[in-house]
Amino acid sequence: MSSDVNIFKNSEPLKFNILYVILFLAVLQLFIALFTNGFLMSADEAMWHYIGRNWFRNGLIPYSTGGIDNKSPLIFAIFGLSDKLFGINYWFPRVLGTICQSVGIYCVYKIATHFANKQTGLFAVLFYGLSVLWHCADGKYVSYTETYEILFITIAFYTLLIASNKRGFFLSGVLSAFALGFRQSAAFGIVPMFITAFRKGWVYSLNYCLGLLVGTALLIALCWLVGIDIHKMLFYTFADNYGPGSTTDHVLMWRMEQFFNMFLYSELVLFYPLVLGYIFINRKADWLIIWLVVEFLGICIVGNYARVHLKEMLPPISIISALTLSHLINVYQLPSKPVLAIVFLCFFPRLLEPLVNLKKLLSAKTLTAEQYCREPFTQPEEEACKKLGQWVKANTPSTEKVLVAGYGAQVQVYTERLSPSVFFNATQQTEADKKVLFKDIDSHKPGMILIPLFPEYTKYVDAEVRQYLANLVAKEYDASQCLYNYTVYQIKQNGK
């Protein structure tokens, strides 16, 4: 692999301690991660915490009785452990994610250093460590599955890079399987590693594939041992993500708009001149270019264009940019320190959201539950969702089931009450999912139902689901009050 990029070898005028640089980036990541979302869980984190809590606290298995989402059971386990150790919190998964991301940054440094030198590694760390904090990459969501997937992908790449025998390729395959265990999109990162192993020789590619199979088998066996239904897990994490009503069900115009926002109207354009420079200097599609192109195609194939997906492109594009910049410094005898300062200033993330949240914390101005319930109805902020959930907890027995209609996971998690259905959040609305939802509610009538008044409910929640719930509360529930722009319905006693 080293022959692909040995043109970028150069001198090393800068002296630094890379661990201090990574520590600085970790502190910056914690500031961005911990001072956002009103200091509470995001909607996705709330879903995973709810499922993880059901698993670790109540023994309810994901994809079965504990709740369903299209994510890996590994992320549910992280949030379940968080609840087990610290109860309802938002900080532990973000701190853990920051630690894992920092290890990934160090792996990027080692890859760049292997191909060039420590100065190139420093530039790669700055490019990656700063860009992963950008708003266009949802830098505040360090607790998401992408963090762990990218960690194992970068470790697997470095392991493959320095492998001197077949065992190294086997280990790289095992690590790749763990990346795949967190996100199926890791398959796109696996492609360039397989190509590299195949170019080395069929024996090496065979060992890489063997490691991939062994690692996958270990993860599946672990899921089976803890009681997860493998068929259901594969269905909800893969098959149920495609087709009408799924998370990838978007019209062409929506996809085009998101594509332009992600790749043309974002900070990502800062990388483009350096990538073009790399192609011009190297004059061949080496494994780094293949890695970058495959990750780009992966984002387009999945088609959600969620900002956090952009993180999967950042390791290869950062290494490529660092190699180009370090080469230009060497060829044109540019002063390294001023160039380093320019990179830092250009790629430094915007810190508007954490500062706004700090201002909110200091001002402590929050609308009351009654102030929310006035037209025009607005979607409540995270703090209001937490207060509503805590109100539900205080006003319901611990055994009573509570249904929060629509995208209500942030409310649901703070109620500490079970939903009557495994589909407690309207993230997927396929025909099969709706049948399960209606059957669950009919079989386990919730004591309380919360239905949103804000327009996002009608915009994003399937009309059939909304009609079903409207008919249900009209027949069997009384509207007791409005709180935080949710109408609270309580089940009629003795059929009255």
What can you see in these coordinates?
The protein has 496 residues and is mainly α. The chain has two domains: 7-40 and 90-352, no CATH class; 369-495, Rossmann fold (3-Layer(aba) Sandwich). The chain contains 22 helices and four strands. It has helices spanning 18-34, 43-58, 73-86, 91-115, 118-131, 145-162, 166-182, 186-200, 202-225, 230-237, 252-263, 272-282, 287-302, 314-332, 336-347, 352-363, 369-372, 382-394, 409-415, 431-443, 456-460, 463-476, and strands at 402-404, 448-452, 477-483, 486-491. The longest helix has 25 residues, at 91-115. The mean pLDDT is 91.
Q: Please, how many domains?
A: 2
Largest sheet: 4 strands, mixed
Overall strand count:
4
- Fraction of residues in β-strands: under 5%
**Order of strands in the sheet with the most strands?**
1-2-4-3
Write the layout of secondary structure elements.
Blueprint: H1 18-34, H2 43-58, H3 73-86, H4 91-115, H5 118-131, H6 145-162, H7 166-182, H8 186-200, H9 202-225, H10 230-237, H11 252-263, H12 272-282, H13 287-302, H14 314-332, H15 336-347, H16 352-363, H17 369-372, H18 382-394, E1 402-404, H19 409-415, H20 431-443, E2 448-452, H21 456-460, H22 463-476, E3 477-483, E4 486-491
Parallel strand pairs: 1-2
Antiparallel strand pairs: 2-4, 3-4
Helix pairs in contact: 1-4, 1-5, 2-3, 2-19, 4-5, 4-6, 4-14, 5-14, 5-15, 6-7, 6-8, 7-8, 7-9, 8-9, 8-13, 12-14, 13-14, 18-19
